[in-house]
């Protein structure tokens, strides 16, 4: 870790974010512009995210499969809105084995088309439905402006693709998976997301309806953190996914797709991090506890390390992910700063006095300084650590929720909306006309994030034009 201090979030949030990713060794820049190398610490965090999601997918009846990285160009052209939406971002392969290809191949930006083609081969009867498949993999989108984790040319994700025999079942699946994402974000990552529906302008290319979980970052900007799409019969018709129903009549299937990517690591960083670095939620943290032995003399070293080993074994037996920092070339203060930068939820300090008192010092990452320190008997350490990790998880969610709620406003007119979205979100009535949506974006740089699913029915006046409106929408500047 570099000794240089981070810029503070208040002075330069963007550079604070960049430096955290690099200094905590989550990722690094790759030699290809816009690509990243995810380092072991970052990949372990992603593996923990994968495990939490994969468990939820399988609990809802989904299975994993793998589909090709390369897709024929003609596949994308079959669904008009889909190819128009993705054409500026496509990476195209025209030469293979030294020969010009008869048909260009696309490095997948998403897999609806290739999966739609395969489903058309597999689905013949209503008995073959539903198909509930998820894929873990990488995709490529040729972004012009890139930022580590948030927006890179290549990124890792999961993409679920399902086919159903009825519109109702497909719509239920769309919302079920949105609930899965929200449950993961809130309960595993302590990120208090808002579930909602995207506007027609903001929805996925080729979808009938796009739903989203939106999160507020530490600078109050919004981050789209996961999406679930009802695709209607658009892709089923484009790829001829047909089946014989119970009356032996030919029908087109109804399909969905849903995805969450390594972008979510950016959500965790920007929701919880402070001026000292990362703060990772215990349920996802690669290392939940770091033990720092402290000694000066050889006699102290022997006694301290004996206790350290015993404590480490006790915690490992309790299934706690931990690291013992044995480094002797750096002082304890450096170690504290290093592990705070990496966001380890809990630090255990063991020195000669702690050995004598048969206690340890616990230091919470989410409460720096004296406020987060406590002295605990070694005899009850495992139980105390387990309880404290749960407390940290709850505290992180409560703090992020309070921050979010205190920055959501109900402006009285357009002028006030333009003001509040510079440092917060606006929840306002909107007539759903594209002209009003464009005016907000052009004049304030804020976009519609989502119509929240939990809003009450009613009617108001559009915050932009004053015409009747039936739904409220979140306006915010976003990543």
Spans of at least 5 consecutive residues with low confidence = none
Instruction: From the alpha carbons, calculate the radius of gyration and give it in angstroms.
Output: 25 Å
Known CATH architecture of the largest domain: 2-Layer Sandwich
Largest sheet: 11 strands, mixed
Strand coverage percent:
25-35%
The amount of helix comes to: 25-40%
Structural class: alpha+beta
CATH fold title of the largest domain: BirA Bifunctional Protein, domain 2
The tally of domains stands at: 3
Number of helices: 14
Average pLDDT metric:
96
Amino-to-carboxy terminus distance: 27 Å
Characteristic key phrases:
alpha+beta; BirA Bifunctional Protein, domain 2; Translation Initiation Factor IF3; 3 domains; 11-stranded mixed β-sheet; 5-stranded mixed β-sheet; 14 helices
